[in-house]
Amino acid sequence: MKCQYCEKPATFHITELTEPNGPQVMHLCEEHARGFLQKDNASPAVSVAGALAKQLNLGQTKKELAELDRKECPVCGISFFEFRSTGRLGCPYDYTHFESDLEPLLINIHDSLEHTGKRPRRAAASADSQAIMIQLRREMEEAIEREDYERASEIRDELRKIENAGIEAGEDDAKSAAKKTKGDSKKSSGDRS
C-alpha cells in the first residue's frame, strides 16, 4: 500500500475516530506520519498521536535514523535497516548487539523484556556456540573468496568440532533419557508382579 500523499510505501496506518464522519483511515509513509503526529491541533487525538510519536521515536533526525540503520552486527552482518525492513534478526547475538534499539520495541510489543513462554527441554546448541558458528562460517567464506584455502579448511575443521560436540551432547542427553525410561519401566513392571 502506498502513502496517501506520495508514492512511498505506507508504513503507518492510522484510524482517526471522528463523530460526524465516522472512522477515517490514513495510510502514510514515515515522513508524512511524522508530520501528522507532530502537528498541533486541539483535538483529543493529538495527545494520543504525541504519545505514539514518542513511542516510535519519531523525534529522531534523519541523520540519527541513518546512523542507526547503518549499525551492523559483527557476527552475522545484518544491518538495523535490514531488520527494520524484514522484521527478522540474523543471529542470536543481534539481541545483544542491538539491545538498546530493540528494548523499546520489545516492551511495546510484549510488555516485557523477559521471555515468559515455553522453551524447549533441551536446546540443540547454546546461543553462544551458534553465534561462534555463524562467525566462523562467515570467516570461511571470506577465506575462500581470498583463495586462502588452508585457512578455510582450518575453519571448516573447527566448525565440524563444534557441530560434533553439539551432536554428542544431544546423544548423551538422549542416552540418559533412554536409561531413565528403561529404569522406570523395570520398576513399574517389577511392581506389577
What is the fold's blueprint, element by element?
Layout: E1 12-18, E2 22-28, H1 30-38, H2 45-55, H3 62-70, H4 80-86, H5 94-97, H6 99-110, H7 127-145, H8 149-192
Antiparallel strand pairs: 1-2
Molecular structure report:
- The protein is mainly alpha-helical and 193 residues long.
- The chain folds into 3 domains: 1-38, no CATH class; 62-110, no CATH class; 127-176.
- Helix content is 60%, strand content 7%.
- The protein has a two-stranded antiparallel sheet.
- Helix 1 crosses helix 2 (45-55) and helix 7 (127-145) packs antiparallel against helix 8 (149-192).
- The radius of gyration is 26 Å and the shape is elongated.
- The relative contact order is 0.06.
- Residues 172-193 have a biased composition (Basic and acidic residues).
- Residues 130-165 form the UVR domain.
- It comes from Rubripirellula reticaptiva.
